[in-house]
Design goal:
By secondary structure, this protein is α/β, with parallel strands linked by helices. The chain has helices at 30-45, 67-71, 77-97, 113-120, 147-155, 157-166, 172-178, 190-202, 206-218, 224-238, 242-253; strands at residues 6-11, 14-19, 51-56, 102-106, 109-111, 123-127, 131-133, 170-171, 183-185.
């Protein structure tokens, strides 16, 4: 499939998805929301894709929405934003719900929808010079891209409000301390470490990883007893998979498991 605003290829069962508008700091325009949605669907539909790595080309991960494009819309801007968020939100929903783990490699800056996209990923690795900011209210807009869902769950309500209302800029180390990122690495090591992690995840028991993602994401809306029932159903379901048989056999034989994702 051809994409205009992202680079996309699959290597070693990892889908590499790079935002590719470096001349405008990978700001998200209408076409990019469409490309992200289609790429997310491709990742969720291709059984050979067992992990996803999202990154950005050029000097930063993503500066948020393309304000220059917004300015050209005039009275049509509300329509444009509804259309863009429809595609962007479909992409994020697909990434969050798919079985394949999603890793983000973030550098330079993650602002606005760029921060939203990072928060929606399963694991985030950041270069040590990265900066994070919500940025929306700075231009009179409000958050989108799932940030009002994921950010309070990651950092707590008070900190989410602080980031949103003040547009405070977090360093990579602060983002690590607040739980927005999982790991901070030197810039020159970012892609190597992110690729190694994605490749390791792609070699894992894909159905088990995806089911574990779903259990954790859905737990916010469940009681203790209902969540434990979902756990019971899920672990029994995994026991029927080839990967569980292989994992147990490999453990007992003291060898490395060779998971097929089935």
């Amino acid at each position: 499939m051809h994409y205009e605003t992202i680079l996309f290829d699959v290597r070693d069962n990892v889908a590499h998805m790079a935002l590719n508008r470096p001349e405008v700091a990978n700001s998200i325009n209408a076409q990019m929301t469409i490309d992200l949605m289609r790429a997310a669907i491709q990742c969720s539909e291709d059984p050979d894709i067992r992990a996803v790595l999202i990154s950005g080309t050029g000097r930063m991960f993503c500066s948020g929405g393309d304000l220059k494009e917004f300015a050209t819309q005039g009275e049509r801007l509300p329509y444009q934003l509804k259309e863009m968020t429809t595609y962007l939100h479909a992409a994020i929903s697909r990434l969050a719900r798919m079985e394949a783990p999603v890793v983000a490699a973030v550098h330079g800056s993650a602002a606005g929808a760029g921060l939203s996209l990072a928060c929606a990923c399963d694991i985030v690795i950041a270069a040590e010079d990265t900066r994070f900011t919500m940025a929306y209210t700075r231009v009179g807009l409000v958050p989108d891209g799932s940030s009002t869902y994921f950010l309070p769950r990651i950092v707590g309500l008070k900190r989410a409000l602080e980031l949103t209302l003040t547009n405070r800029i977090l360093s990579a180390q602060e983002a690590l301390e607040w739980g927005i990122v999982n790991q901070v690495v030197p810039g020159e090591e970012l892609m190597t470490q992110a690729q190694n992690l994605a490749t390791t995840l792609a070699a894992g028991p894909t159905k088990a990883l995806g089911t574990a993602k779903r259990l954790l994401n859905n737990s916010w809306n469940e009681s203790l007893e209902s969540q434990m029932e979902y756990e019971s159903q899920a672990i029994a379901s995994m026991a029927r998979t080839a990967d569980t048989s292989e994992g147990i056999a490999a453990f007992l034989a003291k060898r490395t498991a060779k998971f097929s994702g089935k």
